[in-house]
Amino acid sequence: MFHYHQFDAIVVGAGGAGLMAALHASKSVNTAVISKLYPTRSHTGTAQGGISAALGNLEEDHWEWHAYDTIKGGDFLCDQDAVDIMCREAIDAVIELEHMGLPFDRTPDGKISQRRFGGHTNNETKKPVMRACHAADRTGHMILQTLYQNCIKNNVRFFDEFQVIDVLIEDGRCDGVVAVQLATGDIHVFHSKATLIATGGFGKMWKVTSNAHSLTGDLPAAVLRRGLPLEDMEFFQFHPTGVYKLGILLSEAARGEGAVFINGKGERFMARYMPTLKDLAPRDICSRCIYQEIREGRGVDGKDYVYLDFRPEVINRYFEEDGNPKRVDAHYLETRLPDIIEFARVYQGIDPIKEPVPIQPTAHYAMGGIPTDNDGRVLADETGRVIEGLYAAGEVACVSVHGANRLGTNSLVDLVVFGRRGGKHMAEYCKQASFRPINKDAAAKDGAAQLDRLRNSNGDERPSTIRKEMQAMMDDKVGVYRTGAGLEEALDKIHELQARYKRIRVEDKGYKWNTDLMEAWELGALLDLAEVTAFAALARTESRGSHYREDYPQRDDVNFLKHSLVWKNGTLTVKYKPVRITRIQPQERKY
Ligand SMILES: Cc1cc2nc3c(=O)[nH]c(=O)nc-3n(C[C@H](O)[C@H](O)[C@H](O)COP(=O)(O)OP(=O)(O)OC[C@H]3O[C@@H](n4cnc5c(N)ncnc54)[C@H](O)[C@@H]3O)c2cc1C
Question: Which of 20, 131, 191, 559 is least surrounded, with the fewest CB atoms within 10 Å of its CB?
């Protein structure tokens, strides 16, 4: 069955970015949120460590320092005007969240408490600075609950468990989306003046990942199929501290509270690589150092993992060595890091208060995504042409504030700052725009046909087998270390998998809660994004941030200080656009 809805503004995705946008849009225009998950199950709810803002509540800090750290952390690929906006507006956005009722942890005198995080420094002393605002290690959960409650209060209309499968883009303008209602299999056409995409990351391309099952890149794939490019897809962050073999994240907050990396010889190896920031160096660097240790035979028991050690006596010993007067005990750690201590106990059977925890890098965060300007408007090409009525914000978008490597706690702040900017801009746009007529029956039929092709396909390939092969290959060839030959093999493999995907068989032919069908559809999206990622990575013959080419180990500012844009119109093409550099010239990255 087909259904039709009309709203001024539609937001796809109910994570932090989508809800912040919806909240602000709904102040002046009729707004709906469509989410394939129940809103408070969005991945934002798993964010542990914190949200950065240079409040300076515990020690001196300035938004300009935050901006410098972000740009340096991003290996100078960030658009600096966007970074300035983020770091300046972060302060006000965090206070806005507090006023909405977000229960941040407090300092003894009642201010928002802050902790250290990787790559965030006092620009003068170069030492770590306390910039991450937190609510225990459940910061994202608190943000999500707070925003959801405020959206309800503001009469935002929610379509929960509706999965968007197409974006209506024609003649340089967007008129809405097509979704399937998961409970019934019915097709719904949502007609809008403006649409904001906030569907989060797409880490399910990899096997070892911190990402939730739902992070499958449905909307980036949909806009790619509609002829739009994706930006900087070669940059995907591997977080150094995933639970060994499972990839579940143990937040950097652990190191913010003093935890250290230890190799098989019992050494705190980061002190050797990064003498000033040590274990709080940015994630791309920590992940490479871990692999370096493993490659040189210093993994634990010669295996492919190292330890994250946060036993109080170990933390205190290194605090003393570093001249840090702080001391911790088991009670303090249990209060500050309750969830990750619990994760280690449940998933590894290890008590981190008593034993070190085996960890390995895990695919974590997409720096690339749908290109936007600083108001969230989606860009169609390297000249900055805007697709009217189409916006994106949050992890799915590439503004670009994270450049080649994101600093911890900078995603949550990106969500609220650019979610808010996108929401406000789209409300203003809706006030002066009118609905353009659409052929709703054709849109619905196209959507239904996409799913029916999969439902009725009776080939001999199982989606789960193709998914496993894709993920194993991505771990192996498109991971922390890459080579030209490996990336070419990756592309060949993806093309083989895409051909086999055309012959899949979905066992469940029904309409209600057909997760078998939707997972097969999501696999198609992941394969397209994997292809774009490997292609962009092959084209970038330099090493920068998270993208490390063993055959081109140096950063090459002469040829590659630029953002990639990849299109998939039959074949793949790549073009580049310059990085916007305002205040800070690229320099060597030392910590
Ligand atoms: C384990 C973990 C811990 C993290 N910790 C931190 C941290 O401490 N600090 C920090 O700054 N960052 C952290 N991050 C990163 C940060 O949490 C994410 O980048 C951010 O939450 C993404 O938010 P979002 O609003 O863009 O999307 P998400 O919160 O991922 O929400 C995506 C939404 O899109 C919807 N959706 C997706 N596809 C469709 C579709 N086809 N149709 C309809 N709806 C769809 C989903 O239902 C969901 O509502 C962490 C990430 C992980 C995985």
Answer: 559
- Only one residue has tokens 């274990």, namely 279
The amino acid that residue 38 corresponds to is: Y
Active site residues: 283
CA distance 185 to 162: 9
144 C-alpha to ligand 1 centroid (Å)? 10
Can you tell me which atom of ligand 1 is nearest the CA of 44? 21
> Which residue's C-alpha comes closest to atom 14 of ligand 1?
47
pTM recorded for the entire structure: 0.97
DSSP-derived letter for residue 208 is S
Return d(Cα 13, Cα 10) in angstroms, integer. 10
**Cβ(412) to ligand 1 under 6 A?**
yes
SS3 361: strand
Closest C-alpha residue for ligand 1 atom 44: 35
Q: Tell me the CA–centroid distance for residue 199 and ligand 1, in Å.
A: 7
C-alpha 15 – ligand 1 centre gap (Å): 6
- The residue whose C-alpha atom lies closest to atom 15 belonging to ligand 1 is 411
CB of 450 shorter than 6 A to ligand 1: no
| pLDDT digits (tens), the chain, 591 positions | 899 999 999 999 999 999 999 999 999 999 999 999 999 999 999 998 899 999 999 999 999 999 999 999 999 999 999 999 999 999 999 999 999 999 999 999 999 999 999 999 999 999 999 999 999 889 999 999 999 999 999 999 999 999 999 999 999 999 999 999 999 999 999 999 999 999 999 999 999 999 999 999 999 999 999 999 999 999 999 999 999 999 999 999 999 999 999 999 999 999 999 999 999 999 999 999 999 999 999 999 999 999 999 999 999 999 999 999 999 999 999 999 998 999 999 999 999 999 999 999 999 999 999 999 999 999 999 999 999 999 999 999 999 999 999 999 999 999 999 999 999 999 999 999 999 999 999 999 999 999 999 999 999 999 999 999 999 999 999 999 999 999 999 999 999 999 999 999 999 999 999 999 999 999 999 999 999 999 999 999 999 999 999 999 999 999 999 999 999 998 999 999 999 999 999 999 989
18 touches ligand 1 (CB under 6 Å): yes
Smallest Cα–Cα separation from 22: which of 39, 41, 38, 5? 39
Q: How far does residue 280's CA lie from ligand 1's centre (Å)? A: 23
CA distances from 119 to 69, 209, 223, 414 (A): 6, 22, 33, 16
